[in-house]
Amino acid sequence: MKRILENRLGIWASFKLMGATLNNNPERIAFILHRITGIILVGFIFAHIVSTNSLARNGWESWVAVEVEHLRGINPISIAFFIAIGAAVYHGLNGIRLLLVEALALWIGKPERPKPPYVAPSLKGFQRKAIYAVFVLSIIIWAAIGYVMFFW
Q1: How far apart (Å, rounded) are the C-alpha atoms in residues 44 and 38?
Q2: Residue 18: C-alpha distances to residues 13, 35, 66 (Å)
Q3: pLDDT (tens digit, 9 = 90+) per residue, 16-73?
Q4: 54-60 — which CB contacts under 8 Å span 24+ positions?
Q5: Distances from the Cα of 94 to the Cαs of 12, 17, 30, 83, 129, in angstroms?
Q6: How far is CA 72 from the centre of its chain?
Q7: Domain edges within the chain
Q8: Digit-coded pLDDT (tens) for 63-101
Q9: What is the pLDDT at residue 126?
């Protein structure tokens, strides 16, 4: 039994291994962020459906009193809404990039023979710049929306 357990990495070693694979690999980071933002959006949609259900049960006045008033200023509901907006912005922009890459085969590059250390040919060309553009545009748009939400 002890011999089997010696071969397992353990939780901290597996985190270090994951961190090693993220170095200089923006495509992997974009993939992980796309998954996380998708989960955030599913949670937001569920919470939105539950909260707007009060409109059907209690009338328009109660919905305005609860939802609209809590979105003004900085409070936990407006911060959660701001996070959901950031997730939607990144998920949408990265989804457009993925559609261009996977559906239209843009920015893929020519196939190459694998040479260690293996770097995908798609990450050598324009696709890496497109990933960085998605990161930068997401932050800029999210910051602009945050300025309008909290300081306008």
Answers
A1: 10
A2: 9, 16, 42
A3: 555 555 666 788 889 999 999 999 999 999 988 887 776 767 777 766 766 666 666 7
A4: none
A5: 30, 25, 8, 16, 13
A6: 25
A7: 71-151
A8: 676 666 666 678 888 899 999 999 999 999 999 999 988
A9: 83
What is the rounded distance in angstroms from the CA atom of residue 72 to the CA atom of residue 68? 7
Position 15 pLDDT exceeds 70: no
Asked whether the CA dihedral 21, 25, 29, 32 is positive or negative, the reply is negative
Structural tokens at position 75: 């409070």
- Report helix, strand or coil for 8: coil
Give the tokens for residue 31: 């993939």
| 66-81 as b/e: b if 16+ CB within 10 A | ebeeeeeeeeebbeeb
**AA letter at 118:** Y
Read off the tokens for 84: 């959901």
How many C-beta neighbours within 10 Å does residue 42 have? 11
